[in-house]
Structure prediction request, 353 residues.
Amino acid sequence: MVVIGGGFVGRCCAWLLSRSGHRVTLVAAAPPEGALDGSGAALGLLMADVYRRRSGRGWRLRQHSLALLAHWQGLLAAAGHPVALRRGLLLLAQDAEDWQRQQALASASAKPGPCLELRTAPELQRLEPVLPPGAPGGLWSARDGQLDPIVWGAALEADGTAHGLLLEREPAAAIAPTPGGRGGWRVQLAGGTALGADSVVVAAGLGSGPLLASLGIELALEPVLGQALELELAATTPELWPGSVVWQGINLVPRPFRRLWIGATLEPGESANPDALTNLAHLQGKAPDWLRQARTLRHWQGLRVRPVGQPAPVLIEPRPGLLVSTGHYRNGILLAPASAAWVAGRIEALNGA
Ligand SMILES: Cc1cc2nc3c(=O)[nH]c(=O)nc-3n(C[C@H](O)[C@H](O)[C@H](O)COP(=O)(O)OP(=O)(O)OC[C@H]3O[C@@H](n4cnc5c(N)ncnc54)[C@H](O)[C@@H]3O)c2cc1C
Prediction:
């Protein structure tokens, strides 16, 4: 089978299918020079237990992914590819109404269930370095957290390769049914090579729409740009908090060596607005002194993929053996494992049919 797209979603699919004993080719074209795809730009926050709902598809996918990530981490480590899952996430309430919602969520999540703990304003004020101001309270989630998407992506690719995964670095240009109506698919690469496959997984982010259009299938997706920063903190800044912090929708991710990732802007379209970056860096004018004194080491940007007229992510099988896993928009790193499990389940069902 062929998986198109070497972002986190495509890699999770290709890895899981290879690990399940399938012969898989991953068509993993690099993004254009100087650009990052969503996966290369992502901060890797995992927000499953703090999700606002306790039922429905979004909740189930998030919970499934959180369980799979722990399982996959074990498999990767045993195969010689250790990868970190940095547990712990503090979601600061945006206002009084949000704080009430958090309190309701924490009491609804009493055992058995996700382990969420409330933090009152005085408890938050005691944390060092000082948090950005204004939160009436917060929710501490011990199981949510963060992973490094680039490190995990490399480990999945390396372990997949050890399990027979083949890689093609050229973009896919078109998909067509195998001539003669015998079932199966042909994936045409830009350089002219054609790959035959019983199933094709389209996980090409924004490239998914044009590929499906080559089959007459319409899928509307739109880009939403995100900018992010890596900062180096002054030597006098206290050791950062034990987990990632979310303030007014902005993620603060402690990194090794006194570094901090901060992101990400939400900018519809493909062009970056310098004012949005300034606003991010200064936390809308509310950055504490220690953050203002930090030095910017790196600035990057990437594109998220938002489905138009339907919820994210798009997990569909528009033709037998043609599986689409795209439009993950804001939580694609978290949702990728559960999406891969959906793909693997559909393929098992097709093989059993
Ligand atoms: C700044 C930023 C921060 C983010 N932070 C988080 C976060 O903290 N947590 C979280 O869960 N999510 C986060 N996201 C969202 C997350 O990055 C995306 O949801 C996720 O990366 C989507 O993965 P993907 O593999 O579907 O798409 P992509 O990462 O866009 O990958 C698609 C790949 O397909 C390739 N491709 C396209 N067309 C073709 C073709 N024709 N042939 C072959 N290959 C093709 C592209 O080059 C690309 O490599 C963030 C996004 C951004 C931009």
User: Anything to note?
Assistant: The domain at 2-42+150-219+309-352 is CATH 3.50.50.60 (FAD/NAD(P)-binding domain). The CA atoms of residues 112 and 275 lie 45 Å apart.
